[in-house]
Predict the structure.
Amino acid sequence: MTKTGQLYIPKGLRQYLNFKEEMFLCIYVENNSIIIEHILDENSHNKFVYHGNKITVPVEIQRILGITKDTNLLVTPVCDFKKLVINILSC
């Protein structure tokens, strides 16, 4: 993650999850993980438009989970649900 909270999503992973430019996604915290997925309903919180192969993790989520640019993260795709699960790795 960059110091501005951006995560680069590699092309292969974007294709696998069908993340496309200008697509609406949502981001939230669940069980101490960050979840990024296709919007399932119009009432989803933290909706954003996907641009430029990067996702910006909102500051409030970074604070809740104690994430900094030095935090090691494990990104796992879940294709059936078209989402990314991002976990914090302990050192």
User: Anything to note?
Assistant: The first strand starts at residue 6 and ends at 8. Helices lie at 11-17, 59-65. Residues 11-17 form the longest helix (7 residues). The chain has a mean pLDDT of 87.
